[in-house]
Amino acid sequence: MAPMFWGINRKEKRFVITVKPGSHPKNTSIPTAVLLRDTLKKVKTLREAKSSIYDGKVKVDGVIQKSLHHSIGLMDTIELEGTTDMYRLVPKDGRILVPIKINATEKSKKLVKVKSKTTIKGGKTQIGFHDGRTIIT
Question: Which residue intervals define the domain Small ribosomal subunit protein eS4 N-terminal in the entry (predicted)?
């Protein structure tokens, strides 16, 4: 069963694509195909979503994603080739994730939550964020 924030009406779709393990938890992320078809309504069918994803027309955080099941989560930016539209997934009005339009200057900025902070060999600090990224300072 699909979560309510995916934008799929109850009993409208018989089967739904699931999220594969990735940078965001399953209960707070949307698969790429569902985002295109049901949330953004840029394509009408799953077949159209597959062709646009496999052709490399979808970028998530500036990286081309060619998986229907890729998890798109909090504060991720979505770019669609062929259009000037860019979106960011944010919490809004009590819903977990809602896409909002952003401009090109905002696409390189991303708020992240620090999940872990450890000291590694050499006295350097490693910081882990909510989306699976890490930096060493």
Answer: 1-26
Residue boundaries of the structural domains of the chain: 4-110
Tens digits of residue pLDDT in 18-74: 898 888 888 888 999 999 998 899 999 999 999 999 999 999 999 999 999 999 998
Closest alpha carbon to 33 in 43, 21, 23: 43
CATH code of 4-110, in short, is 3.10.290.10
The bridge status of strand 86-92 relative to strand 95-102 is antiparallel
- Give long-range contacts, CB 8 A cutoff, 24+ apart: 95-98: 95/4, 95/5, 96/3, 96/5, 96/28, 97/5, 97/28, 97/29, 97/30, 97/73, 98/5
